[in-house]
Amino acid sequence: MTDILAFSSNYLEVPIELNQTDRLGQTVLHLAAKLGFPQLCSYLVELGASPVAPDLEGNTPVHYAIQYKQREAFGVLLNAIVCENSF
Fold first, then answer.
1. CATH number of the domain where residue 81 is located
2. Any domain includes 77
3. N or C: fewer beta carbons within 10 Å in the chain?
4. Does residue 15 sit within a domain?
5. What are the C-alpha distances in Å from 86 to residues 16, 17, 82?
6. What HEC string does the chain produce?
7. Measured distance CA(34)–CA(30) in Å, rounded
8. Does the structure show a pLDDT above 80 at 1?
């Protein structure tokens, strides 16, 4: 997974809007959290994706990590929120 991300970030010439949403209002981070890809969650947050961006139903990536029992992804997202709000 890490090799693919590194390749993508080094060779992709098209700008990526990390918080771009689909028809359900979900971002790539929503999907990574739902499917349980903690490394991808970490990478996306590091690039600026929002772990608290709500979809059209008001669910955030954190909600999906909990709903789908993705413990590692939840940990990554929770840590990102805590670090973002620490003083």
1. 1.25.40.20
2. yes
3. C
4. no
5. 28, 26, 6
6. CHHHHHHHHHHCCCCCCCCCCCCCCCCHHHHHHHHCCHHHHHHHHHHCCCCCCCCCCCCCHHHHHHHCCCHHHHHHHHHHHHHHHCC
7. 6
8. no
In a domain, 16, yes or no: no
Asked if 73 and 38 touch (Cβ cutoff 8 Å), the reply is: yes
Q: Say how many domains are in the chain.
A: 1
The two tokens of residue 73 are 């992804």
Query: pTM of the entire structure?
Result: 0.80
Instruction: Return the number of other C-beta atoms located less than 10 Å from residue 27's C-beta.
Output: 22
What's at 9, amino acid-wise? S
**Which residue range forms the structural domain that includes residue 46?**
21-85
Residue with tokens 């903690």: 38
- Please say if the pLDDT value at position 74 is more than 90: yes
